[in-house]
Amino acid sequence: MALAFAALAVLALAVAGGCSQTAMIFPAPAQGREPAYPENLVRTRDATFLYFQGAKVVAYFHGNGEDLADSVPMVSLLRSLRAESGVDAGRVVLLGQSLGAGVATEMAKRGLGARMVLVSPFTSVADMARRMVPFFPASWVRHRFDTQSKAAAIGLPVLIVHGTEDEVVPFAMGEQLARSFPRAQLVPIPGGQHNDLLAMHAIPMREALSPFLKF
Question: For residue 109, how many other CB atoms are within 10 A of its CB?
């Protein structure tokens, strides 16, 4: 009970502080690092991203607290898969990991992709908050990232990859989303946690992604 009241107090302060919610959901990395592929770095007024020219474009949306330097394992995996796939030009795959899954889902809702891959996705920020405080009001959430509410309207093929031992986002949320998207398939990664899928489970990740990206 004391823990619940403490969590409620922290969340209430975050809501009252306004910008505190933003800092919690979008924490800046402690120290920015140069991406491993500086020659592929593209900067615009509003964003910085890595671009690799090829027959297929995979738009990768990373999780919170990460920067482009943290995307090295995913970029390496996707580059190797792209080289093998040889798919038609102009096809876009939206790939979102953790918090980035919410961004990828919004892009899919806007019709900006042909397929979508969600890695360790949560249903919504409000649902995550309720894991700490069961009666947390959804109206208090400033950045909702509500993938669950958008799922039914997204008709493109969706692949959901989720570790069965995810200690941050429950595996059950991946299962729920797989039931909510009309054309989704769920690939459980046995023993996989939230941040070790590429480091410790690269082979099953590759086996999940490879056939899905060949279309």
Answer: 15
Tell me the per-residue pLDDT of 185-207, one tens digit each, with 9 for 90 and over.
999 999 999 999 988 999 999 99
Q: Report yes or no on whether pTM surpasses 0.70.
A: yes
Backbone angles phi, psi at 188, to 5 degrees: -75, 140
**What span, in angstroms and rounded, lies between the C-alpha atoms of 119 and 192?**
11
In 3D space, the residue among 173, 170, 208 whose CA is nearest the CA of residue 189 turns out to be 208
Contact partners, residue 86, CB within 8 Å, separation at least 6? 55
Cα–Cα dist 69/35, whole Å: 4
The residue type at 76:
S
Q: Cite the active site residues.
A: 98, 166, 194
Rounded to 5 degrees, φ, ψ at 98 are 55, -120
Contact 192, 163 (CB under 8 A): yes
Number of residues assigned to the chain? 215
